Amino acid sequence: MIDWIKIAESHVIRTFRKISYAWWGIDIQFYDEYDACKNYRTFFQNPVCSVIHSIPKGIKLCAQTYQKELKKCRKSQTPFFYQCFAGLQGFAVPVPVQQKYVGVMIGSGIRSLKDDDPIQKRYRETLMELGFDSMELDQCYRNMKTIDQHKKEYISDFVKHVAEDVAAFYEYLQEKNETTKKRLFLLEGNYKEKYRRIIGASPAIRQVFDTLELIERSESPVLIEGESGTGKELIAAAIHYNSPCKDKTFVIQNCSAFSDTLLNSELFGHEKGSFTGAVSDKKGLFEVADKGTLFLDEIGDMNIEIQAKLLRVLEDGSFYRVGGTEQKKAKVRIIAATNRSLKGLIEQGLFRKDLFYRINTIHLTLPPLRERREDILPLANYFLDYYAIARKEPRKEIGREVRELLLVYRWPGNVRELKNLMERLILLSGASEVIEITHIPKEILADAYNGLQTHNHATTSQTQRCPQYP
Asked: What sections of the protein cross the membrane (predicted)?
């Protein structure tokens, strides 16, 4: 997926935008394959467009123009000029990478009609009927450069070359990322490759990986907090397999999976006859994980008595098996995870404060999927690839309406829910090559609709500067 923001904000492209406006009065915008503007902060410089965007009706008309032209660009995938409702022209240049449409460069605000042109007068009258001030409009039009046909063709060729360079630059980055084994959010399989891939490049997930790199040489305890389904176990595995004890054992224990008695036995082991069913001696997970890593998931569900024994292991590495009298020793790195507030449990007297400080030496908070929405579509596509390979079936595509829905849905189950939904949609879509909105479960449709209303309300101010399309 092309990183339009990185490209749009690069020094070369910023210089190109400045030159385009200084020489010809043209604003350059970049839209991705989902019709989202990627440089809204520097959207309109020309005076007529700025005036039009000063009232909601003008924003709506401009959005309709862009929606129409972007749709046309996706279908034709060839450069073309268009006329907007204000009498200005623009051009759209699609950007293909390996014959796949990944976005479009748009140049807007080209004035090719003179003041005395009858067509220009008609556009001016239309704008006045919409409520725009005639004197302000006249002044704005006078301040704009007039571009003749010869210049238009020259500008169009120039922008096409820039679009080709953007595509070539992206292909170079893609090839470079492949060779350097780009880090990847751990989702499945072989943890021993360092951050085998990274799905998504949101600031929230980048912070997580920045922290992982900083702690690679450490063997200190780690506390991972995050909602259910955010990938805590997978991050724990990444920490272990990129640590000094990566060649030792990595053991996983869910603290909510056993009763208190059984959890005590699982962690510390037991002696024969220590309780009903203890027919032989058994090593605990601390002995199994000696010199390695023990991952304690849902540590907030561990009772106070076991917490006390865990604290002792963390402090001096010593413990006793259930029913045993011989002191055992183990050097184990603890990685703990929880989807509950440990500080809240401390206030309730359900979690030891001293244990919290001991395991919280290194702290990681995994972001919920709703806080890294730019990663949703890359993750969804990853799961499509994964299931296509696992099932040995042709890969399905995601329809446009489904992509829009995925972006506004709340994702209470986070990445795990997205993975399960993609598997479900592959089945529900049957023989169809494209997953369509009709395949989406009703409960998700209803929730996504509510999310869309919230999303639209929250982005109103941004929409006034750059049209975002459904």
From this structure: none
What's the one-letter identity of residue 178? E
Three-state secondary structure string covering 370-384: HHCHHHHHHHHHHHH
Contacts of 379 by beta carbon, 8 Å cutoff, 6+ apart: 185, 187, 199, 200, 369, 415, 418, 419
Condensed to tens digits (0 to 9), the pLDDT of residues 322-361 reads 999 999 999 999 999 999 999 999 999 999 999 999 999 9
Question: Which of 167-176's residues contact partners 24+ apart within 8 Å by CB, and which partners?
Answer: 167/95, 167/96, 167/97, 167/102, 169/7, 170/2, 170/3, 170/7, 170/97, 170/102, 171/97, 171/98, 173/3, 174/97
Arch. (CATH architecture) of 370-463? Orthogonal Bundle (1.10)
Architecture of the domain delimited by 203-367? 3-Layer(aba) Sandwich (3.40)
| Number of residues assigned to the chain | 470
Burial of 464 (0-12, 13-18, 19+ CB in 10 A): middle
pTM to 2 decimals? 0.57
210-268 pLDDT, tens digit per residue, is 899 899 999 999 999 999 999 999 899 889 988 999 999 999 999 988 888 889 999 99
By the 8 A CB rule, do 196 and 190 touch? yes
Pure H helices in 9-117: 11-24, 47-52, 56-76
Strand (E) or helix (H) holding 276: none
Q: What does the longest C-alpha to C-alpha distance in the chain come to?
A: 103
CA distance 278 to 257: 19
Write down the residue that tokens 């101010």 correspond to.
461
Please report, for the chain, the start and end positions of each structural domain, with discontinuous segments joined by +. Answer: 4-178, 203-367, 370-463
What SS3 class is residue 101? Answer: strand
Between β-strands 293-297 and 250-254, what pairing exists: parallel, antiparallel or unpaired?
A: parallel
Indicate the SS3 state at residue 208.
helix
